[in-house]
Write a structure and sequence with these properties.
Layout: H1 3-9, H2 11-45, H3 50-62, H4 65-72, H5 82-107, H6 111-119, H7 124-154, H8 167-176, H9 179-210
Helix pairs in contact: 2-5, 2-7, 2-9, 3-5, 4-5, 5-7, 6-7, 7-9, 8-9
Amino acid sequence: MSTLDFFLKNYPQIWQLTLEHLWLVGVSMLLAVAMGLPLGILLTRRPGFSRPVLGSANIVQTVPSLALFGFLLPVPWLGERADRLAITALTLYALLPVIQNTCKGIAGVDPGVREAARGMGMTDRQVLFQVELPLALGIILAGVRVATVITVGVATIAAAIGAGGLGEFIFRGVAMVDNRVILAGAIPAAALALLADFVLSRIERRLAYAS
């Protein structure tokens, strides 16, 4: 049976695992943005927190994904369900680019623009939401794009702990020494990463032109 025939025969399962993969990545990215954006803003207001926050996020990046899953496994509540464990690990991996780019984008806003906004009577909160964040949005989105592509790839490892996703085909194919099964997981995962990169990069360019 050729690889194409294998794809056609197993299309329902490939589609189901693709949806599981999307769910893991989507929830993880929502959490990473919800946590990373405020942390990035905090670092622009309290530079003293930069070393511990960015240092912790950098340390997470150096930990191999399987090892991180193993470290989180004994944690109460997280270890009870594989999807919770996987989403937590993926969120931690996605944090660094979001935090860094949020901080970089806001810090890169022209000081003259800030002063002009304050001269118009804007409060610090208004300057942040009406001036700094809109101007930094392109750079922030670039961080989200990088984090999303990383998360799509790392999410394949989630199958090792039973969290589902396209990694199930990859691990199964390695065990069976069957390239068709490996490709059934690898090709859709690569396609998701490329699609996410393409869509987010287009949005990023539009924001750059608009600003």
